[in-house]
Amino acid sequence: IPFLWIFGSNSRDVFKRDLAEEHAIRDIWRYLHKLTPHTPIEVVMNVIEECERLIRKEDVKKEDVLEFIYRNPFILVLDCEYIEKKPQLGPDVIPDFFVLTSTDKFLVVELESPRKKLFTKGKGLPESKDLKDARSQLERYLSFVKNNILYLQQRYPGIKAEKVYGLLVIGLKSR
User: Is the pTM for the entire model greater than 0.90?
Assistant: First the structure.
């Protein structure tokens, strides 16, 4: 199952490829073990295969991907309690999804094309324009949410600024 993990650390001793791979393997096993009591593994595998086919289609429409994820939110967040597609949080603030997790975290989710590149070929793999633009958009959304938390509490009781996070989905491993 292809996944992408991005790890970072201030310590050269902590960030090593073999340690990152070990964390990734443990993470995927935790993911599957949490999911399987709720959903038969055959169903999970079929959904993952369908997702992969969908994102690899050259002419895939964003709305098709949004609808697929809306029907299968565990693809984004394993412990999804509530998902809202294209919520208008404010003027010009319409993320792709707004998700509430079982731990009362709220995620502002922005999906970008799997065709977009993450990095350029410069020294140190600098971010591509696509990634910078998408990250900037998500940061604007998060800033709006955190600056308008009292307004949003009327719509989403229990939302707290310190429990709001962003999730950006962009690109493919092969790119």
Answer: no
